[in-house]
Specification:
- There is one protein chain.
- The protein has 212 residues and is mainly α.
- It has one domain.
- Helix content is 74%, strand content 0%.
- The termini are far apart.
C-alpha cells in the first residue's frame, strides 16, 4: 500500500509537472517519450495495484445515462452553435460540409486515440488513486477539472482551457456517479465530436481544421 507522501509525489509528477513541462521548449521526441512513459506507468498501476478491469459493467443504467447525456448534449449543442454563428458564421458546420471524409477521420481519431486515453488517465486512474483523500466530493471534482484543463495547457489556447475545465466538471461528475470508463468516454466523445462538427475545431487549434 502506497503512503500519502508517495501518492502526493505521484500526483504532482503526473498531473502537474508533466503537463506543464510540455509547454517548455525542448525536443518534441522527448515530450512524446515522457507522455508514453507516464501513460505506461498509469496502465501498469491500474492493473497491478487496483481492482480496475476494462470491461463493460452489466449494471450500467443505460436509460438514465442516455436521458442525462441527451439533455446536456442539447444544451451544449444550442450554446455552441450560437457561439460559432456569432463569432464566425462561415465556420458553422464547415468541415462536414466541405470535407466529409476529413470530418469522419477526425471523429474516429479523436474518439479512439484521444478520448479513451484521457478518460483512463483523468477519471479512472485519478479517481481510483486520489478520491479517498478528499472528504468533499465537490472539491475533488473541481480539482479533477483543473488538472484536466492543465493537460491542455500546451495548446496555448484560452478557449480550450475554459472548455476543458467545464468538460472536466461534467465528466468527473459522470464518473463519480457511474464509476464507468465506458460511459464517461461515450459522453466525452459525443460532446467533443460535436464541437468539431459545429465548427469549433479551428478555434480549438485542432490539427487539420485550418481550412475552415
Amino acid at each position: 500500500m502506497h503512503t500519502k507522501s508517495f501518492l502526493g509525489v505521484e500526483f504532482f509528477t503526473l498531473f502537474i509537472l508533466v503537463p506543464v513541462s510540455l509547454v517548455l521548449p525542448y525536443d518534441f521526441r522527448i515530450k512524446v517519450a515522457t507522455v508514453l512513459v507516464a501513460f505506461s506507468y498509469l496502465i501498469f498501476v491500474l492493473f497491478k495495484h487496483t481492482s480496475i478491469r476494462f470491461k463493460i459493467k452489466k449494471t450500467i443504467n443505460w436509460s438514465s445515462f442516455l436521458k442525462s447525456t441527451t439533455l446536456k448534449g442539447v444544451i451544449i449543442a444550442v450554446v455552441t452553435a450560437a457561439y460559432v454563428y456569432i463569432v464566425d458564421a462561415s465556420a458553422l458546420f464547415c468541415v462536414p460540409k466541405s470535407n466529409p471524409l476529413l470530418w469522419v477521420i477526425i471523429l474516429l481519431v479523436y474518439s479512439l486515440l484521444s478520448v479513451w486515453p484521457q478518460e483512463v488517465i483523468y477519471r479512472t486512474f485519478f479517481f481510483e488513486r486520489y478520491a479517498t483523500f478528499f472528504k468533499d466530493k465537490r472539491l475533488f471534482i473541481f480539482i479533477n477539472a483543473i488538472v484536466f484543463a492543465l493537460a491542455h495547457l500546451f495548446l496555448g489556447n484560452v478557449l480550450v482551457l475554459v472548455l476543458t475545465f467545464l468538460g472536466g466538471l461534467l465528466f468527473a461528475y459522470t464518473y463519480e456517479k457511474t464509476r464507468s470508463t465506458t460511459l464517461v468516454s461515450i459522453e466525452h466523445a459525443l460532446y467533443g465530436n460535436w464541437l468539431f462538427t459545429v465548427g469549433m475545431g479551428q478555434m480549438l487549434a485542432f490539427p487539420g481544421m485550418e481550412a475552415c
